[in-house]
TrEMBL record:
<dbReference type="GO" id="GO:0008168">
    <property type="term" value="F:methyltransferase activity"/>
</dbReference>
<dbReference type="InterPro" id="IPR029063">
    <property type="entry name" value="SAM-dependent_MTases_sf"/>
</dbReference>
<keyword id="KW-0808">Transferase</keyword>
<protein>
    <submittedName>
        <fullName>Class I SAM-dependent methyltransferase</fullName>
    </submittedName>
</protein>
<feature type="compositionally biased region" description="Polar residues">
    <location>
        <begin position="12"/>
        <end position="29"/>
    </location>
</feature>
<feature type="region of interest" description="Disordered">
    <location>
        <begin position="1"/>
        <end position="43"/>
    </location>
</feature>
<keyword id="KW-0489">Methyltransferase</keyword>
<dbReference type="Pfam" id="PF13489">
    <property type="entry name" value="Methyltransf_23"/>
</dbReference>
<dbReference type="GO" id="GO:0032259">
    <property type="term" value="P:methylation"/>
</dbReference>
Amino acid sequence: MGGRHQLHAGTCRSQSAQQRYASPLQKSENGNRRMSCRRPLLNRPSPMENAICPITGSADSTPFLSVPDRFHPEKGCRWNIVQINPSGLMMLNPRPDREELEQHYQHSGYSPHMQSAHSPAERLQQAAHQLLLSWRAAVVLKGLNKEREETRLLEIGCATGTLLGTLHRKNGLQREHLTGIEPDRESAAYARERYGLRILHALGELAENDKGYDRIVLWHTLEHIDDLHATLQEMEQLLAPDGKIILALPNPFSYDAQHYGAYWAAWDAPRHLWHFTPDTLSALLALHGLTVSNTSQWLPDTIYNTLLSEKLLATGTRKPHGAQNIPAALVQAGRFTLRSVLNPTGSSSVIYTVEKTT
């Protein structure tokens, strides 16, 4: 594995906080040290830190919403989402420091940890994930202007490598031209073993001359990254002149977000640090010589987020919830999906195609 620094994958089940959700530019200092998983320390005061707007540097904000952790709504812990003045960016503030935030990723239901499904929603998610991989690959490759055998692609936050594997096996991209970044060591090891892929743990492990990527994919990843500027700067340098960045992000003004309010699952506090709209994302990207060239909707997330939100709402309001609730939830998801088809700005997730500013 070439790069600026080599890391030892080791056998640990948990990596350092800085590996997981700090900037993917960072290199591990504990790559060869065995660590033990700890349970989330949700019953003690959490070390908190305040963030500023990455667009304007402002700390002036207006309270927007107080939301539960979707994995532990019964604990009664609420996280504050604020809207920054004057940029309009929504973000988690205050938020746990890096060491504390690590604990909020150690849940069996959190992808990429979810190797086995427990709830009906999780089983549906896994089945849908397999069916939709080809669709997602088509979205990523749309508008490609070179031979697929020569296409270079980088996925940041590649989890277990299923998208990269699909791009190689079913779409003609060569394995040696595919690179994944995945801080979770178990997931990275699985991707290497299952698909024979090159998987690194941080962008900083890429070689100095490893540039010219035709596609850089962040599928529900950007909202987890705390150091946005360092990451976007590196991505701009890695991107080929005519390459594209594909970003999939939750839509905080979607129909399902408005319907479920604080119980919308895609707030996903405290793991989602930022909640972008087309305007706030464009303003951030412009600081790094990048621009949004196209937006589209990703309708499957409407179904998934509705199912999870129905469960979260029931738990938060102490109402019974189980398999018997799925038909009604699917009907509700169908309503949101139809409305999103008629008005794409209401879709649960938005796909942004990003290019270098000309």
